[in-house]
Design a protein that fits this description.
The complex is a heterodimer of chains A (456) and B (430). The model of chain A has no long low-confidence stretch (mean pLDDT 90). Chain A has a two-stranded antiparallel sheet. Chain A folds into 2 domains: 318 residues, Formate dehydrogenase/DMSO reductase domain (Formate dehydrogenase/DMSO reductase fold, Up-down Bundle), CATH 1.20.1630.10; 102 residues, no CATH class. Chain A is elongated and about 85 Å long. Helices cover 68% and strands 1% of the residues of chain A. Chain A has 20 helices and 2 strands. The longest helix of chain A has 36 residues. Chain B contains 14 helices and no strands. Chain B is an all-alpha fold and 430 residues long. Classes of the chains: A mainly alpha (456), B mainly alpha (430). At the A-B interface, α3, α4, α15, α18 and α19 of A face α2, α3, α4, α10 and α11 of B.
Chain lengths: 456, 430
């Protein structure tokens, strides 16, 4: 209502954010949060046992982690802010005001983390001999800082799903210590450790020759580390699952399988389980028979766990619907608190960036299009990802789309599909939206990325 | 032309205004310092590496400079997080409006910076491997420099556009916003500042590390003199771009206070230039670095403050309008709470519990007498007239009966509600 509309009409706004966020999570968990403690621990072990070949291997793995985290990792983190602020400024703007000090503290920790990773990587070859112990300590401090940044961000993520008593108290601590916080944090910690193990397993093949003793040892060690964290991961996943509010649990099937694939929900669950078992199976192979296998074999666990984490993040993002900030703001940026007022006075009348404020017979379709932009376009595209036209075709197969039927559907949309927010406008706006949607069956429309520019 | 007045985010600021401003200015100064070093060093690396094609020792100097970019660019990014966070909170209505208007261009910052960093890494770590194919090696840093010189256009366009709500209506693309007055002078002011700062940084760096660095036959004095020369030329160019920047400012942001802040700058810059020139000509350049840095710290602080004054003068009328509109809206929303949002918009018609449930849960897709998403109930319920248990089973776990209809999603509700619903639909069908 209060910001210009940006629309990724091919990709879908949700996919845009999801892709950036998922790349960031995979890099953050596997290259940083889990990797740094793993490397520091192994460095300590190699130092104690005098294994210089291991020391060189660890340095090379760190080099990859360093380059990836300080480029793609750091920038996709900032990218989440860029993309969310362009897609849903009202939501991220609210979240920043609630969590300003959490994010500010995270920034301080983040600066320490970057300084430490620079120190850890750039002094690896210089801090040797008596200074090695100090170097290992840098690695441990780095591991702690990486974990702390995640610990702070996880509070924000948990809040978006279950704000605890924040809606009543509106203070930071109440939001921070939301019910899903501890389980999610422990779940993510285990996941990060496991991901780092599988990543180190994949990377060590690039820096060791097949058949060498070092390769065998490395495969065995990293596969063992990966397996070690599987059990805590499963336990905390279950505890976390219990902490999801019951009314969001009904969204799990759609979140998991998408609405189009809902019929294959069980198949997808089995597939997910299979991916997990393949990952565990290949890790077991590494632990028990580390010597005989093609290098590509050791990449499998990392691929599996990355797939699982991506699917987890997708699902987590979806189940909080119809909210973007649980119980505080719907996905379209409207707050439940405002709904009554908007139903009475209208979405268009209360929006800054529209050209049609009242609806007449002449501007009906144009006004309907603007209602679509305001109320629907944060999640739906016209013709591509999660498109309204595909949904309408599925709902009204082999028939003419009837504006009145669509209108009736939208009037109760939250009852019919609990993950959809209620329509936040007047009856006339709803009718205009229905007319616009029905017209899409015969007339194709396109929404430019700068959707509200020049038309206000 | 009337400007667009949105409402603010409906939550209070997380800290007093002055504290947020202080955090913004300090963290931004730190951020831009390292951004300057990152951009300036990349340009200096390119220049000295080209110089090194003829005189081998300059290649070593170039390599030395390149080694520092890794640190500077990582700090540049991480230090940018706090000012981004703070400006988003302090200037939500303006900053998010301009960010969203730029949309794709603003998002492009992310992949472009990633690419620039990867080129920088590739260049740094392939120095030995590519020492025989200098063309390829130079291409890497040329690409990095091209990106580092392009990305600031996006940032400057955004933070310039946010200041002028009166332009929002007619900005239809990034290019429109780029050509608004003031963006280009700000850009060149930024680039020359980067070069000047980098020159000074390497005067310090080469003197400090003189014993550790391998720059072949070159003398430290020679290198620091060149760095000083670069800093002097860039500072002189900044005077020009600074004046241009000032002259292209919209009249309404120029205040007496702003002129008060900038007057000492006018007095200090010639002093800085004179000190720099003395150093370029000195027998052992670098000894007089401290006074130069001291004067420039004062100048930069004044500029940071001037920048803030411009922003405040530009934004505060709009902010007041936004605040008034937000307050009015909140009052109206509070007053409207008595108008309950009835699911299904029943409009006050008295209704039974069963009909309420029907309206909320079923009416989107089902009508009694015609097809909506699902079939007309008069027809569909025919087989359930004497089988309420079967209907109950179907509602909680529907299957597929009709090929040309979508599958009905399972409906979960308390048992007594389900009972009331079934009573209602079986009574009313027919």
């Amino acid at each position: 209502m209060d910001f210009p509309i940006f629309q990724a009409d091919f990709f879908g706004n949700r996919l845009l954010i999801a892709l950036i966020a998922i790349v960031h999570v995979i890099i953050n968990h596997s290259f940083a949060v889990g990797m740094m403690p793993l490397l520091a621990f192994m460095e300590w072990w190699a130092h104690r046992t005098g294994r210089e070949d291991w020391d060189r291997l660890l340095y090379r793995i760190l080099a990859v982690a360093f380059i990836v985290t300080t480029s793609v990792g750091a920038l996709t983190g900032v990218g989440i802010w860029f993309s969310t602020s362009v897609v849903n400024p009202a939501a991220i703007g609210s979240l920043l005001r609630v969590f300003y000090w959490a994010w500010f503290s995270e920034w301080v920790v983040f600066v320490c983390e970057v300084v430490l990773i620079l120190a850890y990587f750039l002094t690896w070859k210089r801090m040797t001999g008596v200074r090695k112990t100090a170097h290992i300590r840098i690695g441990m401090a780095l591991g702690l800082m990486s974990w702390l940044t995640m610990a702070i961000i996880t509070a924000v993520l948990g809040f978006m799903m279950n704000p605890g008593s924040w809606p009543q108290q509106q203070d930071l601590l109440a939001g921070f210590l939301n019910p899903a916080y501890i389980p999610q944090l422990l779940f993510r910690t285990s996941a990060a450790m496991m991901m780092a193990g599988s990543l180190a397993l994949a990377l060590c093949t690039a820096f060791t020759a097949k058949g060498t003793e070092l390769r065998t040892e490395a495969v065995k060690a990293f596969a063992g580390w990966t397996l070690f964290w599987t059990l805590p991961l499963c336990i905390w996943a279950l505890v976390y699952f219990q902490a999801i509010p019951t009314e969001m649990m009904v969204n799990v099937p759609v979140a998991f399988a998408t609405q189009a694939g809902i019929g294959s929900y069980n198949l997808l669950l089995q597939l997910t389980l299979a991916v997990g078992l393949i990952g565990v199976g290949f890790s077991l192979w590494g632990l028990l028979k580390p010597a005989r296998a093609h290098s590509l074999v050791w990449i499998v666990p990392f691929v599996c766990v990355s797939l699982l984490v991506s699917q987890f993040e997708r699902t987590r993002q979806f189940i909080r619907k119809p909210y973007v900030l649980a119980y505080y703001m719907y996905s379209n940026g409207v707050r439940p608190h405002e709904s009554a007022y908007l139903v009475k006075t209208g979405l268009l009348a209360n929006s800054a960036w529209v050209s049609n404020r009242t609806i007449s017979a002449e501007n009906r379709i144009q006004a309907g299009r603007e209602v679509f932009l305001l109320a629907c376009s944060r999640c739906h595209t016209l013709n591509s990802a999660n498109s309204v036209t595909a949904n309408l075709s599925r709902m009204y197969p082999h028939q003419t789309w009837n504006p009145e039927a669509i209108d009736t559907y939208i009037r109760n949309i939250n009852g019919a599909r609990s993950y959809m927010p209620p329509f936040p406008g007047t009856a006339a706006e709803r009718a205009a939206l229905a007319a616009y949607l029905a017209k899409l069956q015969t007339t194709s429309d396109r929404i430019p990325s700068n959707a509200s520019i020049g038309r206000n | 032309m009337d400007e667009i007045v949105p409402k603010d985010v409906l939550l209070p600021l997380p800290a007093p205004f002055w504290l947020l401003v202080a955090l913004l200015l300090v963290s931004f100064a730190l951020h831009i310092l390292f951004v300057n070093l990152m951009v300036g060093s990349s340009l200096l690396v390119l220049w000295t590496e080209i110089k090194g094609l003829k005189k081998k020792d300059w290649d070593r100097v170039s390599h030395t400079i390149a080694a520092t970019i890794t640190v500077n660019k990582s700090l540049a990014v991480v230090l940018g997080v706090a000012p981004l966070l703070t400006i988003s909170v302090l200037y939500t209505a303006q900053f998010y409006a301009s960010s969203t208007l730029l949309g794709t261009a603003w998002l492009l910052v992310i992949p472009l910076v990633i690419l620039a960093f990867l080129f920088t890494y590739a260049h740094k770590y392939s120095w030995e491997a590519l020492h025989k194919s200098k063309g390829v090696h130079l291409t890497l840093i040329v690409l990095a420099c091209a990106l580092f010189l392009s990305i600031p256009f996006i940032f400057l366009t955004n933070i310039n556009l946010m200041l002028y709500p009166e332009h929002w209506r007619r900005v239809t693309s990034f290019w429109d916003a780029l050509w608004l007055p003031n963006v280009l002078p700000r850009y060149f002011h930024f680039v020359t500042a980067s070069v000047a700062l980098t020159g000074l940084f390497f005067v310090y760096y080469f003197r400090r590390k003189a014993d550790d660095l391998d720059i072949g036959g070159l003398k430290t004095n020679e290198v620091t003199r060149v760095c000083y020369g670069v800093a002097f030329a860039a500072t002189a160019a900044q005077v020009l771009f600074g004046l241009l920047l000032f002259l292209t400012l919209p009249a309404h942001v120029i205040s007496v206070r702003l002129i008060g802040t900038l007057t000492p700058v006018l007095a200090l810059v010639p002093i800085a230039l004179w000190l720099l020139w003395r150093e370029v000509k000195a027998e052992e350049p670098g000894r007089g670095l401290r006074p130069v840095v001291a004067v420039l710290i004062v100048v930069v602080s004044l500029m940071v403050w001037a920048r803030h004054e411009i922003r405040e003068t530009a934004v505060s009328p709009h902010r007041a309008l936004v605040a008034a509109k937000t307050a009015q809206y909140q009052a109206q929303v509070a007053a409207a709470q008595d108008y309950l949002l009835m699911p299904g918009g029943l409009g006050g018609v008295p209704a039974s519990a069963g009909s309420l449930i029907f309206t909320r849960r079923c009416a989107s897709c089902h009508s009694f007498d015609r097809r909506l998403v699902g079939p007309a109930l008069n027809e569909a319920l025919a087989s359930y007239r004497s089988n309420p248990q079967g209907l109950m089973a179907w509602i909680t776990k529907p299957g597929r009966k009709r090929a040309d209809y979508p599958v009905m999603p399972p409906q979960e509700m308390p048992k007594d509600e389900l009972q009331q619903l079934i009573e209602y639909v079986l009574k009313n069908e027919g």
